[in-house]
Amino acid sequence: MEKLGVCQILGPTNCNDPHIPEYCADYLAQLGKAMGMEVFAADEETFRQQQIHVFFIGSGGTAEPFSRVCRCVNGPYILLTVPAWNSLAASMEILAYLQRNGEQGEILHGTVEENARRLQVLLRAAKARQNIAGMRMGAIGEAITLVASRADHAMLKNRFGADLLTLEVQELIDEYHKGGYEENAYTRALKQTGYDAEEMEKALNVYGAAKRLVQKYGLQAMTLRCFDLLGSIGTTGCLALAILNAEGIPAACEGDTRSMLAMAVLYQLTGQPVFMANPSQLDRHTSEMIFAHCTLPVNMPDSYQLTTHFESGLGVALSGEMAAGPITIFKCDETMERYYVQDAELVASLRRPDMCRTQLHIRLPEGTDYFVSAPISNHHMICRGHWADVVHEFFKQR
């Protein structure tokens, strides 16, 4: 069970109600239940090791004690309050103190459920930043024709802390010719569909080759310049990337390193499989768009059919069906300054013959102007659920 240790600060016992410690312990128990984890009053060493630093201001008379203990960690300082015992008043004094000293902080004051939600957002953003900072990414052939989709390697390292390794596509082709792949639940389910056995084996051997390179170089995210495979081995990377994404290895196509980064960010923030898709059609009057591509993660749709890669008619690709509901659309670049996110609604899955195999008809409440005025290149990331608040927090925490 996950745990969150907070620094609990209470006022002097000689001027506070003796029931306050019991009240605070009960509040943390309720908060932990709402968050699905244990929330406890931590000792200083444990508190310093937390991914976010929450000061639990349990009563009045706590501003001076806070000023003495707060320097044990760096900001931002999160001030968790209770709806009694002058907790809010003390927190306002503390926040003013922090701001006067050029520090960042915020007061959490609301229902248990509201505070739990905010803490979950803060935790997700902090964990994602920590994970990406130590991430090793790989481009098996970086984009050539996608002129706005190549991440600046030095800036990626400087701003995100992630390493980007570039490999030759030929290395994957050599691995492909060795043959073989590890059987798992995804490969077994795909073979049980009865799709053309020869084409399935070719596609799964690309998966096996890609997975071996991921393991060889210790990659936590990757992209493949997949069109190079068409002439050399007569298949595509669609199925390989669909499986890798389902396994929790963000895997982009077309050698698009910016999309690989965006996939990794969204996956780390949400834990959801991420679909890299082309914006294929939009209607500015209705604020609706169609996104389509051939590399849908195999664990993302409610159901799917197998078919070929759209442009080439080769390989094996998923044509997925997803029920209407909330989704998030996202893209970022490596500067940590440019990103786009919108909570949107999936209207329906389509099956048009003139677009890539999985097609999502989406309504965007905030409109579509961004896509025709200042897009962060072509491909955009889609996952299920509404996560814009978490994304905003991630880029706010620099």
List key phrases describing it.
single chain, 398 residues, alpha/beta, six-stranded antiparallel barrel, 17 strands
Outline:
With 398 residues, the chain is an alpha/beta fold. The protein contains 14 helices and 17 strands.
Description:
- The chain is an alpha/beta fold and 398 residues long.
- It contains 14 helices and 17 strands.
- It has a 6-stranded antiparallel β-barrel. Strands 2-1-3-4-5 form a 5-stranded parallel β-sheet.
- The chain is elongated.
Blueprint (SSEs and pairs):
Elements: E1 3-9, H1 20-35, E2 38-41, H2 44-48, E3 54-57, H3 63-69, E4 77-81, H4 87-100, E5 105-108, H5 112-133, E6 136-140, H6 153-160, E7 163-167, H7 169-178, H8 185-191, H9 197-217, E8 221-224, H10 228-233, H11 238-246, E9 251-253, H12 257-270, E10 275-283, E11 288-293, E12 303-307, E13 317-321, E14 325-332, E15 339-350, E16 358-363, H13 369-373, E17 380-384, H14 388-396
Parallel strand pairs: 1-2, 1-3, 3-4, 4-5, 6-7, 6-8, 8-9
Antiparallel strand pairs: 10-11, 10-17, 11-16, 12-13, 14-15, 14-17, 15-16
Q: What fraction of the residues are assigned to beta strands by DSSP? A: 15-25%
Question: Given the helix and strand composition, which structural class is it?
Answer: alpha/beta
Give the overall average pLDDT. 94
Question: What is the helix content?
Answer: 25-40%
Number of strands: 17
- Biggest sheet features: 6 strands, antiparallel, barrel
Instruction: Count the DSSP helices.
Output: 14
- Give the oligomeric state of the chains in this entry, treating copies of one chain as homo and distinct chains as hetero: single chain
